């Protein structure tokens, strides 16, 4: 129980990294001699569920772009789902679903309000899926530990 206090700052730091990466996208980083630039793209907002996801799955964009977008939007939020039950011991599936929705809406809402990207409901869905996957992995390991 005493170790629980550390998860608040860790989760807050991770949330700050997510906001920096996903909201303020004009970011350049290097791995060896390779340079990667993540920049905000202009475009229309998407309020139709699964429109963007289906577009990526159909191959309307380059496969690598689609794969990075789909997998990245999920994978980046898995740690939120893993850490949340460590911070909130009584967290159940319903609470995890609320956290999933709030997490995705926060990122997409900030992008729209600050006009640094476009709101995409599919990103909310993918981000939320990442939180739920993380929570599920945590629940699975907690259940195994209890047996």
Overview of the molecule:
By secondary structure, the protein is mainly alpha-helical. It has one domain. 65% of the residues lie in helices and 7% in strands. It has 6 helices and 2 strands; from the N terminus they run H-E-E-H-H-H-H-H. A two-stranded antiparallel sheet has the order 1-2. A hairpin with a 2-residue loop joins strand 1 and strand 2. Helix 1 runs antiparallel to helix 4, helix 3 crosses helix 6 and helix 4 crosses helix 6. It is globular. The chain starts with 6 loop residues before the first helix and ends with a helix. The model has no long low-confidence stretch (mean pLDDT 88).
What's this entry about, in short?
The protein is mostly helical. The chain has 6 helices and 2 strands. It has one domain (2-146).
Could you give the topology of this structure?
Layout: H1 7-22, E1 27-31, E2 34-38, H2 51-58, H3 63-75, H4 78-87, H5 93-114, H6 121-146
Structural key phrases:
globular; 2 strands; 147 residues; mainly alpha
Main sheet, how many strands, which sense, barrel?
2 strands, antiparallel
Please compute the radius of gyration using only Cα atoms: 17 Å
Counting DSSP E segments of at least 2 residues, the number of strands comes to 2
Broad shape: globular
Strand order within the widest sheet?
A: 1-2
Return residue spans where pLDDT drops below 50 for at least 5 consecutive residues.
none
Head-to-tail CA distance between termini: 20 Å
Summarize the helix and strand pattern as letters. Answer: HEEHHHHH
- What's the number of structural domains? 1
Strand content: 5-15%
The proportion of residues forming helix, as a percent range, comes to 55-70%
Mean pLDDT: 88
Number of helices: 6
Secondary-structure-based class equals: mainly alpha
């Amino acid at each position: 129980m005493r170790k629980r206090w550390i998860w608040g700052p860790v989760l807050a730091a991770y949330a700050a990294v997510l906001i920096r990466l996903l909201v303020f996208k004009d970011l350049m980083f290097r791995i060896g001699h390779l340079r990667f630039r993540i920049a905000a793209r202009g475009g229309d907002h998407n309020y139709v569920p699964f429109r963007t996801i289906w577009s990526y799955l159909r191959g309307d964009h380059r496969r690598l772009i689609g794969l990075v977008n789909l997998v990245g939007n999920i994978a980046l939020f898995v740690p939120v789902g893993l850490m949340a039950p460590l911070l909130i011991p009584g967290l159940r599936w319903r609470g995890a679903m609320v956290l999933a929705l709030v997490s995705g809406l926060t990122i997409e809402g900030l992008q729209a309000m600050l006009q640094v990207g476009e709101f995409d409901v599919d990103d909310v869905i993918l981000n939320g899926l990442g939180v739920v996957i993380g929570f599920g992995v945590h629940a699975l390991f907690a259940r195994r530990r209890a047996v």
